Input
Amino acid sequence: MSYSADFLARAYTTMKTIRLFEERAIVEFEKGNIPGFVHTSDGQEAVAVGICMHLSDSDVIGSTHRGHGHSLAKGCDVLGMMQEIMGKATGLCKGKGGSMHIADFSKGMLGANAIVGGGPPLCNGAALSAKTLKTGNVAVSFSGDGSSNQGTVMEALNLAVVLQLPHLFIFENNGYGEGTGADYAVGSHDIAGRAAGFGLPAEKIDGTDFFAVHEASGAALKRIRDGAGPAVIEADTVRFDGHFIGDPQLYRGEGEIDRLRRDKDCLIRFRERVLAESWIDKDVLDGIDADVEALIERAVQEGLAAPEPDVSELTTDVYCSY
Amino acid sequence: MNNELAQERPMEQSTPRNKTIREAINEALYQEMERDSTVIVLGEEVSGGAGCDGVDDAYGGVFGVTKGLMPRFGRERVIDTPISESAIIGAAAGAANSGLRPVAELMFFDFIGVCFDQIFNQAAKFRYMFGGKAKTPMVIRATVGAGMRAGGQHSNMLHPVVVHMPGLKVVMPSNAYDAKGLMITAIRDDDPVIFLEHKLLYETSCHVPEESYAIPFGEAAFTREGSDATVVAISAMVPKANAVADKLRKEGIYIDVIDPRTVSPIDSESILESVELSGRLVIVDEAHERCSLAADISSIVAEQAFSSLRAPVRKVTAPHTPVPFAPSLEDAYIPSEARIEQAIRDTLGA
Output
């Protein structure tokens, strides 16, 4: 399979944007510019981008507490996101959501979700809308290995099969549910295998390989759009940082993060592959690096300068009418 | 209020069209599904018979409220689900975010314990957390109330739990006319609405016009009028309060009986206006007393009409116990007409 330089440039731009967004979020959090609980997804970019490149704005995704990457991959505005996680009035959700509750329905981003296992039941609903209204759209829920152990997710898997919903369940297995190993907490050690027991196709892929993600999810989404019902993909991936910014990560093995950054960095792997195949010029990638760096710098500066919400906003947006 | 009431409740019509609450809600669902193809119904046995060899539409909901919808609108819009409350409510919320107007049935409101996250952390909070950009036009229908000898896990009145939650609206009709009009409003509303149907009221009937009509939320009904005392009654307590008011009327004691109809939003103005005249307030609710709607109404009056009160507020509620099974105990659990009457007499100093 071959890829156009334009496609690769878009993929790389989005992955790089997520990487630098997350790395800068850590810096700004530590400076006190980002309040609250923040969970970064650096290391997992290939999953978000490889899948979302198959989706239009009218397809929807649901995400997790570790949702910056999914949001950016689905097209949420970088500036609006930075302002949101800084709690600014001009943020994507007027500063009322924060890092764990970013949504942009106009982009088909149904919401990050700070409840582990909260998203898949909701994505069933979006898939039910697509099926009932015959829009041809699909829903994709991103969940983690931790979420795969939640009862709500198992209910959602079963209901999706019963109603044959156009829903692709993604389980990003980054090896950790917070500070507990997935090998310990997933009793069967096999999320895809367990999901297959619900009666839907389920496969396990290398989530640090953009091309593996893009091809597997493309095939699954095509089947789903053709009416084959739901499917599951377990993407093996890596979490470069802690569960949350500030996590001392004492549970990590010695040298583990260095090894992951050396061997499992999806951006390095992407660069090596596309250059080895001569699909794109190195200059183009370097140019993207510089552009994204400038974009993130601008996002931070605009975020810092943006106004805080007026206190009058405290009691608005609770209801459509009351 | 009274003129409006006369328009809204044409009980005195020459040819009454008596319908039960069950029939009235069914008619509202039917008419809204006819009117708007984005309205769907989902839940356990809302039709019944899916995947079975016997007859279709075998249940129409365990209390028969959704009977006949599936034969008319098909299984695409009347969806029998597995027994998976989180999946049901989650699917309804996600569908509401993406173009449908789902009416999800939570068979017994006690089952909120299984799916509470999807209600209060998800559906209720989307609009606020997402900066006012989300709409979640969904209705959760559920049965409430004791009296069926169903014991601890199928009998509770848990409306105070959801009234507490910003982002949710809570509707509690006490008669068939209101049930139809409030259900139509609930389906057309753009916020998540919890619609609570008391099991003991399903068979009660009154005049229900055939044509579609919507009753606005947040407008109480005065089901009896009088300025000697004010009784606020909720759901199945309304007919009991009416009966007590009718009895006292024969003694020359005239009672305002206020049925809030929706408890979030609640028409506190009507309650305050009544108490300002009567100076006496009794609140009758089948829920427990602690942290309750009764306590909430009491505090509204204490804060905003304290100087009008001529007697302490009385609350007639269930005790702080689970709902018992034994008929003798359950009968003692549910607020009785005798307790309501005594509470009114207490406030009157009689």
Observations:
- Residues 21-35 of chain B form the longest helix (15 residues).
